[in-house]
Amino acid sequence: MNTHFERTGTLTELTSYPRWVQELVEACEPARRSVRDHVMWDMMSEGHIDQATMRNFMVGTWSLIERFPSFMAQNLLKTQYGRSVGDNLARRWLVRNIRVEQNHAEYWLDWAEGAGIARDVVLNGRPPRGTQAAAEWCHEVCGNDTLAAGMAATNYAIEGVTGEWSQKVFDSLAYAQSLPAAGRKATLRWLQLHAAYDDTHPWEALEIVCTLMGNHPAPEEVDHLRECIERSYVSLHYGLERCLVKPYAEEVEEQAA
Ligand SMILES: [Fe+2]
What angle do CA 46, 48, 51 make, to 5 degrees? Predict the structure, then answer.
């Protein structure tokens, strides 16, 4: 029985990957949907998101964006060239893509600014409570877990679902038109770069995870990966929910606590 995985099919087709990962992706679908179909994207793409929610979203998500290359660097530290095909693939991919991430923090600030949230607010504003769960989780899994778990949780799960919601918002004419015409292209640049049709990173990450795990990983290893991927989606979903809470509600909660 051949336990090594080597992709022969198309990169962006789930059927090109081992059976266990097809089932894993399917099992994680409800959690992924809770992020992909979140009301936040409807508010944006219908062009009627309020400034308080947008501020919460921009400030609350900032640390995840800003720290994303460092999560990849945490994974890079686990690789060792020549140890396995998976290690070699991961090392090469991470080195190259940390560089690609270089400008994305700046583009996030451009998006915020175009959407009426000053960069100083994003850089120094206090994020709404609960919105840091995804960044904290990425730090934990990339720092302490296996290379496969770290890449599955971040480059596959977080980048993958981000591609889906980015495409939704980027495709919306109403959202584009809700922004000032001057600088609109720069404002939309982050979304454009992360929209799924331009971004094959999550698929490449999935290929690396499969190469590291092989065709027949132990069931408990698969279960663990599923937990890691679901936790990424759940923490993103929770963060989005917290962005919808208005300052008044938070004050009330703080007084009650
Ligand atoms: Fe990025």
Answer: 140
Topology classification of domain 49-256: Heme Oxygenase; Chain A (1.20.910)
* Beta carbons of 147 and 75 less than 8 angstroms apart: yes
Q: What are phi and psi of 22, to 5 degrees?
A: -65, -40
Place of tokens 């008044």: 248
Which of 34, 253, 255 has the alpha carbon at shortest distance from 129?
Answer: 253
What is the whole-number distance in angstroms between the Cα of residue 250 and the centre of ligand 1?
A: 30
Q: Per the structure block, which two tokens stand in for 143? A: 């720092």
Residue 50: helix, strand or coil by DSSP?
coil
Protein residues with C-beta less than 5 angstroms from the ion ligand 1: 101, 104
73 within 8 A of 98, measured Cβ to Cβ: yes
CA 129 to ligand 1 center in whole angstroms: 24
CA of 190 to the centre of ligand 1 (A): 8
Q: pLDDT of 59-83, one tens digit each? A: 999 999 999 999 999 999 999 999 9
Dump pLDDT digits (tens) for 186-207. 999 999 999 976 679 999 999 9
CA distance 189 to 170: 9
Task: Please give the Cα distance from 205 to 198 (Å, whole number).
Answer: 15
Please state the separation of Cα 10 from the chain's center in Å: 23
CA distance 96 to 16: 24
Cα 132 to ligand 1 centre (Å): 17
Give the integer Cα–Cα distance in Å for 75 and 87: 10
CB of 230 within 8 A of CB of 28?
yes
pTM: 0.93
Residue whose entry in the numeric block shows the structure tokens 């992020």: 35
